[in-house]
Amino acid sequence: KQEVTQIPAALSVPEGENLVLNCSFTDSAIYNLQWFRQDPGKGLTSLLLIQSSQREQTSGRLNASLDKSSGRSTLYIAASQPGDSATYLCAAPQWGTYKYIFGTGTRLKVLA
Amino acid sequence: GAGVSQSPRYKVTKRGQDVALRCDPISGHVSLYWYRQALGQGPEFLTYFNYEAQQDKSGLPNDRFSAERPEGSISTLTIQRTEQRDSAMYRCASSLGPQGEQYFGPGTRLTVT
To answer: Residue A12's beta-bridge partner residues?
Structure first.
C-alpha cells in the first residue's frame, strides 16, 4: 500500500530564499510522481510531472527531482516570492494501479 | 482550450437526498479521476475511468457512491441517501492518458444538512 509523506507540514521563509520541499513514498515501484500547488480555497494546479525514467524536471524557478530507490522526491523553489505562498502537494500512484495517493502537503509562506 | 469543469460548484442538500455531481474533462482526455478532499488534507482517490470503463473504484467509501462515464467524456458521481459525513469538496481530474499529467477542475463543495 502506497503511503506519501510530506515534511515539513508548514514552512515560513523570507523572500528571495531558495527552498526545498520534501515528499517521501513507501512504494518505489512508481511510474511517475506529480507535484501540485493549491491556493487557499482554490483548486489544484499541476506544477511538474516526473516520469520514473527521469531524475529531474524543471519549469521556470521550480525543479523537481525523483529518487525511486530512496523513495523520495524534492521540489526546489529558487528565489522565492510572496506569490509562491500556497500549499504544495505531491502524489504518487499505488503499484500496478492508477490510484494516486496524495501527501497532506507543505504549507509555504514567503514573507515580503 | 477549456479546462476541466465541474457542476454544480456548490450543493447543499438534506440528509437522505440523492445528489449527482458532474465533471466535464478536457476534450480528448481519456483518463478521468474522482477525488474527495477534506479541509487540510490532500485529495483522497475515489475512482478512475479509462474512456468509459471504470477501471478502479476501490476508493468509493460504500455502495451509496457510484460513478459513470457512459460515452467516455462527461462523468457523473452519484451519492445516494446522503449523510452528513459525505460533506466535503469533490474534485475531478483528467489526463491525456493513464500515466499523464492530471488537471483538476474547480471542485464541487457538497454540504449535507
So the answer is: A109
8 A C-beta contact, residue B46 and residue B92: no
Question: Measured between beta carbons, which residues in chain B are less than 8 angstroms from residue A31?
Answer: 99
Residue recorded with cell 500512484: A93
A44 shares contact with chain B (CB less than 8 Å): yes
Do B42 and A100 count as a contact with CB atoms less than 8 A apart?
no
Q: Would you give the end-to-end CA distance of chain A in angstroms?
A: 41
Please tell me the distance from the alpha carbon of residue A42 to that of residue A32, in angstroms, as a whole number. 24
Q: Exposed, middle or buried by CB within 10 Å (0-12, 13-18, 19+), for A63?
A: middle
Query: ∠ CA(A18), CA(A22), CA(A27), 5° rounding?
Result: 155
d(CA B97, CA B113): 38
d(CA B113, CA B108): 16
In three-state secondary structure terms, B83 is coil
Torsion angle of alpha carbons A48, B4, B88, B84, nearest 10°?
Answer: -160
Judge whether residue A23 has pLDDT over 60: yes
Rounded to the nearest integer, the mean pLDDT of chain B is 96
A104: chain B residues, CB-CB within 8 Å: 40-42
Question: pLDDT, tens digit, for every residue of B1-55?
Answer: 589 999 999 999 999 999 999 999 999 999 999 999 999 899 999 999 999 999 9
